[in-house]
């Protein structure tokens, strides 16, 4: 997340020589940071680091210990938690060190040059992987809720999507190996974005900023908003299955509102937290003073802080609004705090996935009796299984297990019975 200023390289000489100093003559004087401002920034960063570490470690640990969470839908959540955890460990400590030292001075020597190229690259890969994981989650939810009878999101496809969430950021961040370098300005070594010849530094920086903005903000935000709009519309127009008592209708209405909260929280959190980050890059691209002198430290801090905040908000959304994670985290924390109850029992959790398996087994027993035609059996199974899935939503979990595993079990048993 290298957001320091850029240097215009008008000569063929390598950056870092005395001709770069003239660029600072027209720069406004740097604002003096008061001790109170410094302590406030450091405290805010430490709060985000602690919240992100605790939240993402909880998500990963609960997912590994709860068998109900070892599904395709939750594999994308785990992938996002890993990316957010790496962002916390790799990106945030650097910002804390910068605020403590109150300077952006970089490491000297060959080690400094290598770190200047590799470290911002790794930071950007982790951050953008988290963004693409949100996109993969929205795609999986669309397939599971809007197209519940089609086996689109297979195990193989989910692995391909997870691989792409890492591969695309790696490819798009590769130019940083060329552009980033250590530059000496006014006696200080800084890690800056310096596009060498034959690139035009202004045009290269602007074009690269636009590409990243489209790939990792405009496109994901548009697709996520569109898919979740379709999902919400599908849930909202779905009629209550079975007996339409007042209690059932109220429960289903609550489930709709809870699913709406989950999806809106994801979209709003992503849109608001990443917008300042991209706006600052556009300011540095289209403003000559900001391009040569860099943005004010306060503006840069706010943009970076909100981009870091997504790593803490993402796990909080699932730990608070997802019943499986909420139950699993409570049991995990209880087992850590109380020595006499250290065993975790996922089968006792009150999540919707356990109910799905029970209803699926009961459904197989019911439809295997007094029905002769296999087509009738499969048709009734599909209809009841979809109703069962929407009953899962009435439990308040927008990540309820899809119908697929139960349907596969039924069709396998159906073939065995027919033999």
Question: Could you explain the architecture of this structure?
Answer:
The longest helix is centred in the middle third of the chain and has 41 residues. Strands 1-2 form a two-stranded antiparallel ribbon. Helix 1 runs antiparallel to helix 3, helix 1 packs across helix 11 and helix 4 packs antiparallel against helix 5. The C terminus is likely disordered. The chain is built from 14 helices and two strands. The protein starts with 34 loop residues before the first helix and ends with a helix. 71% of the residues lie in helices and 3% in strands. It is mainly α and 419 residues long.
Strand order of the largest sheet: 1-2
Give the CA-based shape: globular
Q: Which ranges are low-confidence, i.e. pLDDT below 50, for 5 or more consecutive residues?
A: 7-22, 346-372, 385-396, 400-419
The Rg value, from CA coordinates, equals: 26 Å
Structural class: mainly alpha
Helix content: over 70%
Beta-strand residue percentage: under 5%
- Kindly report how far apart the N and C termini lie: 61 Å
Described by strand count, sense and barrel closure, the largest sheet is: 2 strands, antiparallel
């Amino acid at each position: 997340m290298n957001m320091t200023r850029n240097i215009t390289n008008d000569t063929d000489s390598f950056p870092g020589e005395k001709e770069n100093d003239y660029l600072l003559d027209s720069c406004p004087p740097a604002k003096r940071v008061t001790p109170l401002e410094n302590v406030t920034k450091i405290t805010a960063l430490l709060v985000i680091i602690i919240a992100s570490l605790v939240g993402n470690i909880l998500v990963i640990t609960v997912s590994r210990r709860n068998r109900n969470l070892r599904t395709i839908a939750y594999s994308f959540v785990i992938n996002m938690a890993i990316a957010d955890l790496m962002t916390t460990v790799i990106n945030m400590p650097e910002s804390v060190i910068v605020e403590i030292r109150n300077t952006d001075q970089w490491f000297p020597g060959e080690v400094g040059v290598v770190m200047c190229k590799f470290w911002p690259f790794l930071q950007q890969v982790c951050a953008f992987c988290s963004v693409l994981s949100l996109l993969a989650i929205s795609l999986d939810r669309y397939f599971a809720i809007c197209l519940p009878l089609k086996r689109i999101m297979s195990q193989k496809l989910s692995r391909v999507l997870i691989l792409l969430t890492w591969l695309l950021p790696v490819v798009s961040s590769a130019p940083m190996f060329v552009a980033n370098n250590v530059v000496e300005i006014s006696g200080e070594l800084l890690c800056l974005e310096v596009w060498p010849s034959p690139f035009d530094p202004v045009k290269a920086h602007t074009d690269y900023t636009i590409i990243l903005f489209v790939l990792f903000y405009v496109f994901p935000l548009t697709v996520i908003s569109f898919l979740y709009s379709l999902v919400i519309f599908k849930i909202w127009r779905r009629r209550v299955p079975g007996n339409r008592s007042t209690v059932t209708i109220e429960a289903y209405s609550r489930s709709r509102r809870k699913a709406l909260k989950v999806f809106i929280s994801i979209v709003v959190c992503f849109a608001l937290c990443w917008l300042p980050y991209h706006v600052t890059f556009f300011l540095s691209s289209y403003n000559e003073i900001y391009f040569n002198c860099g943005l004010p430290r306060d503006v840069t801090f706010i943009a970076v802080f909100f981009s870091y905040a997504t790593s803490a908000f993402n796990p909080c959304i699932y730990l608070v609004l997802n019943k499986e994670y909420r139950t699993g985290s409570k049991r995990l924390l209880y087992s850590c705090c109380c020595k006499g109850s250290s065993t975790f029992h996922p089968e006792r959790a009150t999540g919707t996935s356990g109910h799905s398996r029970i209803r699926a087994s009961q459904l197989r027993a019911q439809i295997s009796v007094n029905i002769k035609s296999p087509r009738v059996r499969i048709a009734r199974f599909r209809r009841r299984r979809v109703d069962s899935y929407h009953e899962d939503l009435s439990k308040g979990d927008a990540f309820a297990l899809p119908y697929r595993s139960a349907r596969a079990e039924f069709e396998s048993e159906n073939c065995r019975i027919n033999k």
